[in-house]
Amino acid sequence: MYKAMSEIKPIVNALKRSKVGAILLMIQIMITTAIVSNAAFIIYDRSTYLQQETGYPEDEILYFAITTFGEDIDLSQLFEETETTLREIPGVIDAAVIAALPLSGSGSASGFDTLPHDQHQNGDNRNVRAAYTTGDDHVLNTLGVKIAEGRDFRPEDIVVTNDPSMLAKVAIVSRAFAEEIFPDENAIGKTFYSGNTGVEIIGIVDTMKGPWLKDSRPNNVIIFPRVEARMYQNVAVRATAEDRASVRKSIEDKILAQYDKRVVINMRGMDEAKAGYNAADLLMLRMLVVLIVVLVMITALGIFGMTVFNINKRTRQIGTRRALGARKSAIVQYFLVENGLICLVGLFFGCIGAYYLGGMLLREYSLPALNNLYIVVTALSVLVVSLLSVLLPANRASNISPSIATRTI
Amino acid sequence: MFWHYIDLSWRSFKRTPMVTVLMVLAIAAGIGITMTSLSVYHMMAMDPMPHKSSQLFHPQLNARDDGDDWWTEDNLPHQMTYKDAMNLYRADIPRLKAPSMRTGFSVNLNSPDVKPFIESVRMTSRSFFSMFEFSFIHGAPWSQGQEESAAMVTVISRSMSETLFGQSDSVGENVYFDDNVFQIVGVYEDFDYHVKFYDLTNGAFNRAENAMIPITLIPPLKAQTWGNTNGWKFEEINSYQDMLNSEQAWLQFWVQLDTTEEEKEYREFLTNYLIEQESLGRFEREEVHFALRNLTQWMTYNRVVTEDNRILVSASFMFLTVCLANILGLLLGKFLRRVPEVGVRRALGANKRQVFLQHLVEVGLLGFIGGIIGIGIAQLGLWGVRATYSYYSAIATMDISMLLAAPAIAIGACVIAGIYPAWLVCRTNPAICLKTQ
């Protein structure tokens, strides 16, 4: 170590004579550090988002929609039969008509109250946003979520109607919603309001996400036991993961065989629906990964190229040093220390740059604040990469024969 | 002289193939990455109708109580209620105005030949076609009379006509939207823009509808929107009529105002309209609040260029800077090694300017090769974008301006990087160089 320090002075003197090359390298290291630490942080942020627990067995569930254009049939009756047909397909665990499909990016949300609408002026009402969907007593099993507290829907809870004013009187909610609308108390048996209609919470599910993972309240979900068969009707089917592909192929034929004045559209797995909703984030993630990898490679190549160039320029000096008794390790060390010095200065400014870039992204865009740990780790990695890129040419330099010095003088 | 310099550059490349390949790779990677994000940006930000975008306006009305917060930056809703859209549609001014709404049906011919398929359909007024310059290849938009009487007529796109009837001319044929028979009165050329700018509310890069029907059919068809519906107050909505009378916003509205006088007049009209609506007791406000944005302002307001894309564009330009610093360093080494040779040329009569130009031509050629390879890398990158995000498939492409920009940026960047090394070389004093040899 001491020996390395003692080399610093001549190295600095040598650097002073080729300032431009050193400054260029510093600039590269600086920008690389600033970009990579911020990009790595965005990548981490997006991949945490993409991998979050949704509460559903995503690889088991199939979504599709049926549009019925025949008007010579009772829709409610037809969908009753369709559900039965679907449940009988080998491999299917359960099936249900459902209003909004979780994780799909389309659905309904509203504010729900602790007081009926007519009494809002009299007291402290709490209004909580939640996504809501409707389904029958098969919906929880179809979505593969379990009741944590309270009970599942029973057939007598289900409101089957075509009248939009007929609302369900009970509901199963996600824990996040229960805790937000009734904090510090057990929500089972409590009543919340949609307009003036009271709804009793009969069951709580620990985790189930709504249709929009980017909603301000992605975890607040309400399921009402209600079936209103529509011309455009969403359907969910759960099959075992192995059978899903074969079930998927047979669904359309079975449905059209039952009644053919309808169209089956948008058949997709829940995982595909989620991937579709999140495709922009995956795109950003992939582009940033490519950017980081290529950027680090280019910087490493730059360092490599500069070192090769310096060695070529100094072949005679190296030969002379070797002739005067310098060990091979001393030659390698010289280049490592030289590059290390440049790199440290570049990293110093790079860290400052990364910090300000992070601050700017936070101000201008909807990104979370950069964790400074990312800057530290990036700086260390850049240092390692840069020393590794020096090592190869430096080793070659250490093999320069001392005779070269004598030969060309 | 230029070709001589090109020849010299080529010889120089061959003499140091390793460094040349490194430099070309650096510039190609820089251009490839930059052009990938820049092409997407370019397609997003491009003005789709440069000759008309300042005449097409999208009014927004704040028909809500004071203190009722909305999530947009200026607290204005993007869409309109049915009441407002219809009132503005039936108003005397301006001449061209188009309420519009996206819905959809299962399209069929009531025959086994064509399997029914789901298609989104736009409901709008006939002015829509001239405002957004749809070109009709057969027939014409429905007539004013048909619009007023809510006739079951439709105009469809060329591709829809070809899907249904195997030919572009299907005027006079009937088509079923769900169970309703519509008569085709016109066929228009497919809407061929990268941005579906007339309906940014439902996704700026979605596919355009392939069929349009009169807006006046909303009540008889009880048409459901295939887009967002936004409300702001509690209303009992138990029937379709309740929905039409409600304060729920679910329609888009466009007007064409050709002159600033017309714009001013329309602003006054909207002010008076809102005062009148307030007097009906629909909402309570201190002052009326509305906005009248033209097409380009509307695209900015709707953030057609995404935040992610802005970040990527700036990151890739920083990346390009790194590549340039890299090339500059390598050029410095390469050119300085050539000083003795330059000394000879100088001694033989080449002047500084010629030496300088020769070296700039060399870096320019480097940039050109790098730019061409960069286009290849960008194509690969754009293919990756399309494969990851099919929603971007129409915009993740390079148009001719981007194809030309790639080598231009590459050559420009390389020349900038080459100026300093070239200057160092041409400064060489021939006498000193000759002496050391």
TrEMBL record, chain A:
Molecular function per GO: transmembrane transporter activity
Keywords per UniProt: Cell membrane, Membrane, Transmembrane, Transmembrane helix
Pfam families: FtsX, MacB_PCD
Domain (ABC3 transporter permease C-terminal): residue spans on this chain: 290-402
Main location: membrane
A GO CC annotation given for this chain: plasma membrane
Cellular localization per UniProt: Cell membrane
Domain spans labelled MacB-like periplasmic core: 88-253
InterPro entries tied to this protein: ABC3_permease_C (IPR003838), MacB_PCD (IPR025857), Macrolide_Exporter_MacB (IPR050250)
Transmembrane spans: 20-44, 287-311, 331-357, 369-392
Membrane topology of this protein: Multi-pass membrane protein
The UniProt record lists the keyword Transferase: no
PANTHER family attached to this UniProt entry: ABC TRANSPORTER PERMEASE YTRF, MEMBRANE COMPONENT OF TRANSPORTER-RELATED
Family: Belongs to the ABC-4 integral membrane protein family.
Protein name stated in the entry: ABC transporter permease
Organism: Agaribacter marinus
Automatic annotation (TrEMBL), chain B:
Protein's organism: Agaribacter marinus
Protein name in the entry: ABC macrolide family export system permease 2
Topology in membrane: Multi-pass membrane protein
Segments forming domain ABC3 transporter permease C-terminal: 314-430
Keywords, alphabetical: Cell membrane, Membrane, Transmembrane, Transmembrane helix
Membrane-spanning ranges: 21-44, 311-336, 356-380, 400-425
GO cellular component: plasma membrane
Subcellular location(s) per record: Cell membrane
GO molecular function annotation: transmembrane transporter activity
Keyword Nucleotide-binding: no
The UniProt record lists the keyword Transit peptide: no
Domain MacB-like periplasmic core: 20-261
